[in-house]
């Protein structure tokens, strides 16, 4: 939970701080137009812009499901919940950026942020949950098993006492 809050604070600082720039481009509301423009600027510029947008919220794809702490959950439902939360958070950031000087709304960053959350979730969460389930099913640590197997004796019996009139 602490990592989740720390990551969200870093994301807020990166995306919602005012920028001192001499000019600001217009908002991009056409899907994939910004990605196309980044690709036209060259592979290095495209990798920096697209990769940055993919990686910005990607840790949420791992941190959100692990913060819930549930191991026995449908992988598809977990992916859907995580991607929906990532998309809503990205949309909230984009809407808040409309009031920040130097920041502009970009629908492509919404798409790439959400894709980053989905890819991180698919790459990490199913394997981690499977490993944790295997560890849980293999039993408790040796010391805990020993304590449970030790004889406890018979249950003490309390003599019945009559109820006074």
UniProtKB/TrEMBL annotation:
<protein>
    <recommendedName>
        <fullName>VanZ-like domain-containing protein</fullName>
    </recommendedName>
</protein>
<dbReference type="Pfam" id="PF04892">
    <property type="entry name" value="VanZ"/>
</dbReference>
<feature type="domain" description="VanZ-like">
    <location>
        <begin position="5"/>
        <end position="124"/>
    </location>
</feature>
<dbReference type="InterPro" id="IPR006976">
    <property type="entry name" value="VanZ-like"/>
</dbReference>
<feature type="region of interest" description="Disordered">
    <location>
        <begin position="135"/>
        <end position="165"/>
    </location>
</feature>
<dbReference type="InterPro" id="IPR053150">
    <property type="entry name" value="Teicoplanin_resist-assoc"/>
</dbReference>
<feature type="compositionally biased region" description="Basic residues">
    <location>
        <begin position="135"/>
        <end position="144"/>
    </location>
</feature>
